[in-house]
Amino acid sequence: MINTYEIMETIRMLEAEKLDIRTITMGISLSDCADSDGKAAREKIYRKIISYAGNLVKVAEEIELKYDIPIINKRISVTPISLVAAASKDSNYVEFAKIMDQAAQEVGVDFIGGFSALVHKGMTKSDQILINSIPEALASTERVCSSVNIGTTRAGLNMDAVKQMGEIVKEAAELTADQGGVAASKLVVFANAPEDNPFMAGAFHGVGEGECMINVGISGPGAVKAALTKVKGEAFDVVAETIKKTAFKITRMGQLVAKEASEMLGVKAGIVDLSLAPTPAVGDSVARILEEMGIEVCGAHGTTAALALLNDAVKKGGVMASSHVGGLSGAFIPVSEDAGMIEAVEKRALSIEKLEAMTAVCSVGLDMIAVPGSTAPTTISAIIADEAAIGMVNSKTTAVRIIPVPGKDVGDEVVYGGLFGRAPIMKLSDYSSNEFIARGGRIPAPLQSLKN
Amino acid sequence: MKAIISVIGMDQIGIIAQVSSLLSEKKVNILDISQTILDEYFTMTMLVELERLETSLEDLKKDLKSKGDELGVSIKLQHEDIFRSMHRI
């Protein structure tokens, strides 16, 4: 029998340290729903989502009961809608978002991702229609999430798309001005977007994926922090080992849930995404892990190195624990969703420049950052370009989820509640990037040799 | 299925007796039992077999929870695989 200490360790991780399965995300291919009649396509989409995901919530609840593991969200990701809707003659895809929202509501999932387009090299007519539809689509739905991939290491950066996305982010925020610009929090602009990511808002079901897959996203910053409190003052070798061991245990739990869910649903298991995804709850913070390593307040010098160690050790521990690790695996640093990050921003210890540096060594990027509502679209585009350049050059995923909060300025705060938390408005550069963004065109793919 | 029941709380007379009589009522077979004091808390873990369980898993968990509330301890029931997957390769 498993001994008492081991049992208690697991229970403590789940209860005191807030270890949870963040999401079971069902990826569904909608490729076969294309139709020259938009309405017919949407009916096929609705029927397909209901038939595949009808039992998803029920199965997740049964797993919660059986193992006493909290499963925070149940989600769906679908084929990028710009591909599915391309065959239709529609000149606006908002109705596609609405049908996704309805289907999500019907099956009871928290979010549905895939109102997406992949435009890293160029844009099809359909990609353009989708991008133009994003602000209204996000403002008029509740659960739909959207993402646009504007660059890859192999294709370079599509700066025409970058320019447009600055405007789209701004418009999305303005359309939901009465809710703090919340629509922008459901929109991610990616470089090197993964096709199997279960986390929102960036989840979509890539074209290389199967008909239907189960991807599990697991989280546990609290468990990692608790493990590190036991090795206070020890050398980094010990810190890395401790994180790896904890990450291994956490990922094993994710693997178990992924296997169980895929068997119960009769759907292939895709990947386990081991990401330290914080929530605003006390004790569920990535910033606190960095502080546990000896940084007085997250953002002080040394933060980037601490995060690099954390991100790498999490992956190393997770890889052996699961047959297929994928998605975004690593450490997330969403400002509004992490109590420690919020505090660091309020103490002026953490700036957007430091966050940008941190994204060079961890998963994702500038995430859930609230900025003044008066921010120029070209400034947002330039932030996207900077972040995408980091991803492109370092062959990693980076993303920008930034919210220009209408009517708010530095010193104010915006509160979203739930998993989205609250965010102090961050200061950006006072200087313009207008002429840089106005150029358009493409930034060529970087050289993969002569690494300096 | 096999599950682990864990009981954590302040020590008092009769915890084991009360929990095991509830289990026998529900036709839950106890395979192994271990008890210790961890960080000043009474800690008991039981490996149980639920093949002959006469209620649903959900109801059994509810009954255990209300028994725990009555005794002022926390009682959890979890499929043993969660522990096995985490702690055994």
Give the N-to-C terminal Cα separation of chain B.
Answer: 20 Å
**Proportion of beta-strand residues of chain B:** 35-45%
**CATH H-tier superfamily of chain B:** ACT domain
Mean pLDDT over the full residue set of chain B: 92
Q: Regions of chain A with pLDDT < 50 over 5+ consecutive residues?
A: none
Element-level helix/strand string of chain B: EHEEHEH
Report the strand count of chain A. Answer: 14
Alpha plus pi helix count of chain B: 3
Going across the major beta sheet of chain B, what is the strand order? 2-3-1-4
Q: Strand portion of chain A, in percent?
A: 15-25%
Order of helices and strands of chain A: HEHHEHHEHEEHEEHHEHHEHHEHEEEHE
CATH class of the largest domain in chain A: Alpha Beta
Largest sheet descriptor of chain B: 4 strands, antiparallel
Task: Give an overview of the whole structure.
Chain A: Homodimer. Chain A: InterPro entries: UPF0210 (IPR007841). Chain A: It comes from Halanaerobium salsuginis. The complex is a heterodimer of chains A (452) and B (89). Chain A is of the alpha/beta class and 452 residues long. Chain A folds into two domains: 24-191, Anaerobic Ribonucleotide-triphosphate Reductase Large Chain; 212-443, Anaerobic Ribonucleotide-triphosphate Reductase Large Chain. Chain A is 43% helix and 19% strand. Chain A contains 15 helices and 14 strands. Chain B has helices spanning 15-25, 57-71, 81-87; strands at 2-9, 29-38, 41-49, 73-79. The longest helix of chain B is centred in the last third of the chain and has 15 residues, at 57-71. Chain B is 37% helix and 38% strand. Chain B is an alpha+beta fold and 89 residues long. In chain B, a hairpin with a 2-residue loop joins strand 2 and strand 3. Chain B has a single domain, classed as 2-Layer Sandwich (Alpha-Beta Plaits), CATH 3.30.70. Chains A and B meet through helix 1, helix 3 and helix 9 of A and strand 1, strand 2, strand 3, helix 2 and strand 4 of B.
